[in-house]
């Protein structure tokens, strides 16, 4: 389900997002530092106000974009690294259901998925897994016996038994 192409795609996306986040921040913050030095050398009474304003704007810009634009991609890359290279658990059972609604699991958008590992289809034997919302839904019908490879309940691959 995941490959090196996914890893390369998320790294390229992160590179672009870091650039969009850091370049304007760096320009405005550098301007604030230059204005501060210029104001101190010329003993200006008002340039410190502009310096403070630029520092606050650049810091707010960075924090806003980091939290809303960059952090989700960093979380996705961390989980993708676990799914590609981390320890995996193999579970075999009956594919019971998959949610139609996207939910949040540790900052990653996923579908909740139930797998029944028991012999008698007892609800106590249901296991909850999370399926990546950015991947196409599994093609197997409900009630099919499947093998799920997972890392911390995140599905890394799914096969019909």
Helix percent band:
40-55%
| Tally of helical segments | 2
- Using DSSP, what is the number of strands? 5
**Range of strand content:** 25-35%
- Point out poorly predicted stretches: none
The arrangement of helices and strands along the chain is: HHEEEEE
Main attributes of the structure:
161 residues; 29% strand; 5 strands
Provide structural commentary.
The structure is a single chain. The chain has 161 residues and is α+β, with helices and mostly antiparallel strands. It contains two helices and five strands. The chain has helices at residues 4-41, 47-85; strands spanning 89-105, 108-116, 126-132, 145-151, 154-160. The radius of gyration is 24 Å and the shape is elongated. The mean pLDDT is 93.
SSE layout:
Layout (H helix, E strand, L loop, with lengths): L3 H38 L5 H39 L3 E17 L2 E9 L9 E7 L12 E7 L2 E7 L1
Antiparallel strand pairs: 1-2, 1-4, 2-3, 4-5
In short:
The chain is α+β, with helices and mostly antiparallel strands. It contains two helices and five strands, in the order H-H-E-E-E-E-E.
